[in-house]
Design goal:
alpha/beta; Rossmann fold; single chain; 365 residues
């Protein structure tokens, strides 16, 4: 029987295997790698590292605390399902809903706007998270117009600045760049990173895509070069989606932003421009926001290990930055499970711990 393309790529990767640390920054890539047990079928010298590619996982605890405080003050909080169970320093949105707060799961910002329109006497807040992939839809909604009782709590992140920080602090040889993000930003923003000596390959989400990306990084390393290659041309080009980015930056501006597990990264987040500040939850409800900031000075301004013990033993910060693997966490698969997660890496469908646990019995290709 003729060997399929995946097996040929596996053979090629293993034949040319040298010590190599490749990081991906996409939760869907981790899902593919775990589902098809790609780590098990390639040479152990070629390490696939999971970076901060899960938007729910990198949302800082103080943003969750603020959303909970808003809910407890009588606001309607709307959020994606994965966000509901991610703990802040005082519990999760799900905990607050169990205590009687009006917190509703939505699938998009349009669902949240509909709730605001249907309840004109209630202040409705949409908890906006995600990378460059999801931000344009939020920008488009604000440009179309939203009700006066609607605001957005923004916790959007930009991926290239995080990748650049990771090259400084982590032993990485190259990156598999995220396909979803790259459909919006294109391949050009990665050039400055590749010029520092880090091969970058933009890949899709099939097992074949991931294997091809690994082989292409090996080629660059073998030739002593580093540049940006596009292994996902069916969805990504150099420029990206210009219209989406124009909308995004018409509504948002770059700002310094805190990432769970990493800390503050310069110009890695997005804040609403002055023209849209009447829809900025942090601006409209500034009094509550200031109270939360003061509270964090007394509790946990850092990322994962809160003084109140909520995250005691959790290694999510280390896992998000590839300083540890889920199997090294003492809570993984014991006290921390998908049905009862301790940290965000086990909550989200894109979280590294969730995928390691779900696919732990899967065999390789």
């Amino acid at each position: 029987m003729m060997e399929n393309i995946e097996q040929k790529l596996i053979s090629r990767i293993n034949e040319h295997a040298t010590t190599l640390r490749i990081m991906h920054v996409c939760g869907t890539h981790e899902r593919t790698i775990s589902k098809y047990a790609i780590r098990d079928v390639i040479n152990e010298d070629v390490q696939l590292l999971s970076g901060p590619g899960c938007p729910v996982c990198v949302t800082p605890a103080e943003d969750i605390d603020f959303a909970i405080a808003l809910a407890r003050s009588g606001k309607v909080i709307t959020s994606f399902g994965d966000m509901m169970r991610v703990p802040g320093t005082k519990g999760s949105l799900f905990d607050a809903r169990s205590d009687g707060s009006d917190i509703r799961m939505v699938y998009s910002i349009d669902d949240a706007i509909r709730i605001a329109k249907d309840n004109p006497t209630l202040q409705t807040v949409f908890f906006g998270i995600g990378f460059e992939t999801t931000t344009p839809s939020n920008a488009a909604a604000l440009l179309r117009g939203v009700p006066e009782n609607f605001t957005i709590l923004t916790s959007h992140k930009l991926m290239p600045p995080a990748m650049e920080i990771l090259t400084q602090d982590t032993n990485i040889d190259g990156f598999l760049a995220p396909g979803h993000v790259s459909t919006i930003i294109g391949t050009d923003p990665y050039e400055c990173i590749s010029k520092k000596g880090f091969p970058i390959v933009v890949t899709g989400f099939e097992a074949l895509d991931v294997l091809l990306g690994i082989a292409m990084i090996q080629n660059q390393i073998g030739s002593g070069r580093s540049f940006v290659e596009n292994a996902y041309p069916r969805a990504v080009n150099a420029e990206g989606n210009l219209m989406a980015r124009e909308m995004m930056y018409e509504v948002f501006k770059k700002t310094d932003s805190k990432w769970r597990g990493i800390g503050m990264i310069e110009k890695s987040g997005l804040a609403l421009r002055k023209e849209f500040e009447q829809f900025d939850a942090a601006n409209v409800h500034a009094g509550i926001y200031e109270e939360i900031e003061i509270d964090h000075e007394k509790t946990a301004p850092d990322t994962d290990v809160a003084e109140n013990g909520l995250y005691e033993g959790c290694m999510c910060a280390e896992i998000l930055t590839a300083r540890a693997q889920p199997s090294q966490c003492p809570l993984f698969g014991t006290k921390c499970l998908p049905k009862d997660p301790v940290g965000p890496c086990m909550v989200s469908l894109e979280g590294t711990c969730y995928n390691w646990y779900k696919y732990k019995h899967n065999k390789g290709l």
